[in-house]
Amino acid sequence: MIHEGVIRLIEFADLPALEWEGEYTHFRRVYREVYEHYQMGRALPWVIELPRLGIIGQLFVQLDCRNKTLADGVERAYLFAFRIRPAYRNQGWGTKLLGFVERDLYTKGYRRTTLRVSKSNESARCFYERRGYSVVGEDCSEWRYVDHRGVERVVCDPCYQMEKHLRKPLAVARKL
Ligand SMILES: CC(C)(COP(=O)(O)OP(=O)(O)OC[C@H]1O[C@@H](n2cnc3c(N)ncnc32)[C@H](O)[C@@H]1OP(=O)(O)O)[C@@H](O)C(=O)NCCC(=O)NCCS
Fold this sequence. Notes:
alpha+beta, seven-stranded mixed β-sheet, two-stranded antiparallel ribbon
């Protein structure tokens, strides 16, 4: 089925939709924090929306963070929370969203995108490799967040750090 999709930045009212049907409720505070970073100019939370169907995917960008090998606010930007709803995978939406975000970052002066992918997520690593990303390191560090109930959760997921050198885009199109 062919749909027209629109890629746009999130609005406050979108936050509940990012929890899907409860699968990502535990990230409620994380999403709120991303939204606040966006308001401060430190993050770009992109979503892809289909008419009548709503948001079917997301890809967030952190422009600046403490770890300057990931994002330095100038040349490097960190991609995270990339997901397409299962029913819409393998139809090209993820490729479109990633390509759009890379082009947008290039026009803002960024020249490298970085990301982390779980070592157990081989299909995602291959997806990134086919789109120009290379493994540049490994990371076993824990990260912590506070869930929707106020409980601190610790995530320990060995992952690869990947990077891509961004090239000058041929065209910037917002509507697909
Ligand atoms: C990784 C992810 C975001 C990719 O999104 P997606 O929308 O499925 O990606 P695409 O459809 O653009 O591409 C995936 C595959 O679908 C196929 N495909 C792409 N466009 C297609 C089309 N129009 N018709 C049929 N198949 C298509 C291709 O085989 C493609 O793989 P390849 O080009 O790398 O060989 C998605 O699989 C996902 O949400 N995964 C779970 C969360 C996750 O692992 N995120 C990454 C965390 S680091």
